[in-house]
Amino acid sequence: MSAPLPYLPQRVFAAEDGTHGIVPQALIAPPRYVQGPNVWERLGRYLSLIPSTNAAILISAGGQRRDGARLLQSIRSAQIAATTVTFHGECSQEEVERVVAVLRASTPAVDCVVAVGGGKCIDAGKCVADRLGVPVVVCPSLASNDAPCSALSVMYSPAGVFADVEYFPHSPALVVVDTQVIAAAPVRYLVAGMGDAMATWYEARTCLRNPQARSVLGARPTLAASALGELCARTLFADGVAALEAVQRGEVTDALERIVETNTLLSGIGFESGGLALAHAVAQGLTVLPAVHQHYLHGEMVAMGLLTQLVVQSQADEFQQVAAFFATIGLPVHLGQLGLDPDDTPALRAVMETAMTLPYIVNEPLPLSVDTLVAAARHAHTLGNDVAQRAGDAPYRALHSE
Ligand SMILES: [Zn+2]
């Protein structure tokens, strides 16, 4: 007996069987998204919508110390039973199987998994819920990445090396973002999320304009997803600096609310249904260098990937606008700010060799090669260096001084 094929949206939406060559437009998204200061205290009320009567919370030991008691109290106050499972830190098949075994043994059966934490805990929670055949509820404690709203998990080996991407037939049933928690987290996470979210528009636009391009779903992007992507860039330019200052003060403001929604909801739907392109190919390529992977966040690598994409696309004015914004909030604008030497040809070639293998690189209609990408990254480095000279690098140094 052969194992069933893993679920792949590309297989469902893209009509790979060739029937009439139809490539439809498609959009997926969580059915419920709630955001605001202290909304975690009403988590039980929201879980009653699932509806859940016996929830499992997947959360790290640190998360339990910070938020475990009030989350349990909120759930139990809605007459919902709750158990806690400690997340051990890596989103690997081994960790997922361990948690699944713990929850399979619990009676009565768990009817909902609540993942509380950063991207890896959220992605592990999606896997656990999928294995148990129950909905996943996502409570992100950081606004640093696109994980909360998507129906996919990035899987790693137990040692933390990227393994593959797992896709699920369901988006998270509910996403609850407590902006008071985001405001209390280190500001570097919010800034990294802004790098990830800024790329959403420029990648979605590339996919919208190239009729051959496909979203992560294997489908053509809808106008809706592209519009959410465009709103990401517009909101970041308008409110990004004010949101950063709010987190520096530990305060929830309207600007912070708008940027948290941008980093989490708009960018999450925008990347999944609007499509990825060169910026994320370069960002994923950068993870092959341990020195980058271990010291920089996903959104920081995406920032350099986006600047490389704008060079490839000869968008000189947009390059200046985006790089100036990145320098102001402390994102990397040149290779040195990712700990890389622009003259280290073997390292840059390794990055771009990986980038060229990723499925979304073909969404860029211009002819590309490892050589052209290395040259583009070096050109982005030179231009970005000029921006850093003019703007100063105090915001970057403030985030990277520890
Ligand atoms: Zn991303």
The CATH architecture of the largest domain: Up-down Bundle
Q: Compute the CA-based radius of gyration.
A: 21 Å
Major sheet characteristics: 6 strands, parallel
Q: State the domain count.
A: 2
Strands, total number: 8
Summing up helix and strand content along with how strands pair, one would put the structural category as alpha/beta
Assign the CATH superfamily of the largest domain: Dehydroquinate synthase-like - alpha domain
Bound ligand species: zinc ion
The spatial strand order of the largest sheet comes to: 1-8-5-4-2-3
User: Helical amount among residues, as a percent range?
Assistant: 40-55%
Shape label: globular
Strand residue percentage: 5-15%
Please mark out the parts with pLDDT under 50 across 5 or more consecutive residues, or reply none.
none
Mean pLDDT: 95
- Indicate the CATH class of the largest domain: Mainly Alpha
Contiguous helical run count: 16
List the secondary-structure elements in sequence, H or E.
Answer: HEHEHEHEHEEEEHHHHHHHHHHH
CATH topology of the largest domain: Dehydroquinate synthase-like, alpha domain
Distance between the termini: 54 Å
Overview of the molecule:
The chain is an alpha/beta fold and 402 residues long. The chain is 53% helix and 11% strand. Helix 4 (93-104) packs across helix 5 and helix 7 (187-209) packs parallel to helix 12 (298-312). Zinc ion (ZN) binds next to helix 12.
